[in-house]
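Ticket #4471: structure output looks truncated?

Reporter: J.K.
Steps to reproduce: submitted the chain below (172 residues) through the standard prediction queue, then opened the result file.
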Amino acid sequence: MEYEAVGAEPTATGDLPGLGSAQGQEEAYSLLVSFEGKELSIAQVGGYDEPFTGSSDRSGAFLTVAVAGEQLTRYDGPARPRTVVEADDVLPDGLVFMGRPGFLDEARVLAPVGEDPWEEGCRHFLLDAVDLRPRAEVTYPPGVDVVSRVLPLGDGTWLTFDGDAVRRRRTR
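Returned output as attached by the reporter:
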């Protein structure tokens, strides 16, 4: 089988890029790429249909999210899942994880959640970065469309996208 590389995501430490690979819409894997001397090694991380979210913290921990949004996992190393949460266990009202949850800072993860992982409209929750349980819901000013496309920057801020507008946001 052949897989297409769908995105390279460097970790915050810069030494281990993550690579998402996909075949069609039904299969996705996370691959961790490392260089040792002149050798390039690639190791699968996580399970089937568990791609990287593209976010890591300063320690090198990173997140994967199940394609259908039913599970979010924090890894502290390639073979060390630290926390695995099921959406049914931690999110209200049958919501699932969607988009690309990411580290807002060392203590919090910003996670888009909604009823369907392929819809644009959603809500944003702040999760504890260790146990991945919701701590708060983000509210936006009236008239702001909340969509799953967000980019947590790791410094307590994140970017939101609304049409051609990109806005940098922070909590108070």
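Triage note (M.O.): checked the attachment and the full token line is present. The helical segments are 87-90.
Status: closed, working as intended.
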